[in-house]
Fold this sequence. Notes:
By secondary structure, the protein is α/β, with parallel strands linked by helices. The chain has 2 domains: 2-142, UDP N-Acetylglucosamine Acyltransferase, domain 1; 198-249, Udp N-acetylglucosamine O-acyltransferase, Domain 2. Helix content is 16%, strand content 26%. The protein has helices spanning 195-200, 205-220, 225-232, 238-249, and strands at 2-3, 8-9, 20-21, 26-27, 31-32, 38-39, 44-45, 48-51, 56-57, 62-65, 78-81, 86-87, 92-94, 103-106, 111-112, 117-118, 123-124, 129-130, 135-136, 141-142, 147-148, 153-154, 159-160, 165-166, 180-183, 189-193. Strands 1-3-6-9-12-15-18-21-24-25-26 form an 11-stranded mixed β-sheet. A hairpin with a 5-residue loop joins β25 (180-183) and β26. α2 runs antiparallel to α3. The chain is elongated.
Amino acid sequence: MSVHPSAVVAPGAVVPESCVVGPFCTIGPEVVLGEDCTLISHAVLDGRTRIGSRNIFHPFAAVGVAPQDLKYGGEPTETVIGDGNTIRESVTISRGTVGGGGITRIGSGNLLMTCVHIGHDSQVGSHCILANAATLAGHVIIEDYATVGAFSPVHQHCTVGRYAFIGGGTIVTKDVLPFSKTSGRRENKAFGVNSVGLERRGFSPERIRSLQKAFRLLLVSKLNTTQALEKMRELEGEDVALLAGFIERSQRGVIK
């Protein structure tokens, strides 16, 4: 393997020969790296952390570090990361807590931009984009293909639905509807279907039109949420069914 002389790799760490560990990086004794990972410089991998292959860690990323939770007492909790993620400068990812399930989990193919924070016990899916300084409090769920805009904090126990797009500077205190465009600071609002994002992900015009009908029922009609859900069940398509199920399962309420 290529390990810079100034890097510190603790005994017990698993670092395959295909990995590159740059100057002044630190890898803790319970870290397991997959193949072809790159630590550019000054990156810190700590705790009981399992990392897949082809991940890139930019300078000053801190992964698997102790959670920012006063209840944490050094328990052996974990961080699990998939494959092909890009983790940019000064990103912080806290490991889990016993009270939150014990694992902070990141999927595959994600882009975590500069200064992103992922709090303890959060679950980030795959192919997500978290823009600069997006901040996830503990116990947040980000579903697949979601985008969280720059400087957007997400409150504890919130869920961001798949394919959702959150505009920059949005303070998220309720669940964000899948397939939606959501933005706002003092008063958050959903602005309909994230049609451009869905087109880029290969959604057909028919799928998008079906979702647009569902969002009109939910956001534009004079129906309350329960009435809108009844009407949405009459529409065809797995996407609409997923949207309706998300609303029904929501514990914090959804942003409309």
